[in-house]
Write a structure and sequence with these properties.
alpha+beta; 8-stranded mixed sheet; 2 helices; disordered N terminus
């Protein structure tokens, strides 16, 4: 089995040497009750051994959000800063991970954290669905990806 590993250059992302240092504060968060299985899965994704699903190719997927990792990035095509987010979870098909640089997905995660607290305090994952909304802007109708909490 072979995996096509994500090449950050393909997505116009640039990871600064300063942030990739050993003293970087790791921002991957899981509940204490999470299994070693999902921790190993997340570590292998972060290392680059396992690819993530792209949010824009996963609209309507539902999964139990168990944790996430956020990395500050600079977009070379616009020279702006943003967040590259990887969400880790469980679906009916097993362990899953989704990646995106969407500001709206990042904002949705921060809203989930403001309501439910940090994932380290969750008793179980949060059931979420990946959403796509049409938005009108100065350049016409576009797409915005977000999350919906399923009650």
């Amino acid at each position: 089995m072979s995996y096509d590993l994500m090449n950050a250059d393909d997505y116009g992302l640039s990871f600064s040497d300063e942030e990739s240092g050993i003293n970087e504060k790791i921002r991957a968060v899981f509940a204490e009750s999470e299994s070693d299985e999902i921790r190993a899965y997340a570590a292998n994704i972060l290392i680059g051994n396992i690819p993530t699903k792209k949010v824009n190719e996963s609209v309507d997927d539902t999964f139990w959000l168990c944790g996430f990792h956020v990395k500050k990035v600079r977009f070379r095509d616009s020279d702006k800063d943003g967040n590259y987010t990887i969400m880790f979870g469980r679906s009916i098909n097993g362990l899953c991970a989704y990646s995106t640089s969407s500001d709206k997905v990042y904002a949705a995660l921060m809203c989930i954290v403001s309501v439910y607290g940090e994932p380290s305090k969750w008793k179980q994952g949060i059931n979420v669905k990946i959403r796509m909304n049409a938005v009108e802007g100065s350049s016409g109708v576009g797409k915005a990806y977000s999350l919906e909490v399923i009650g």
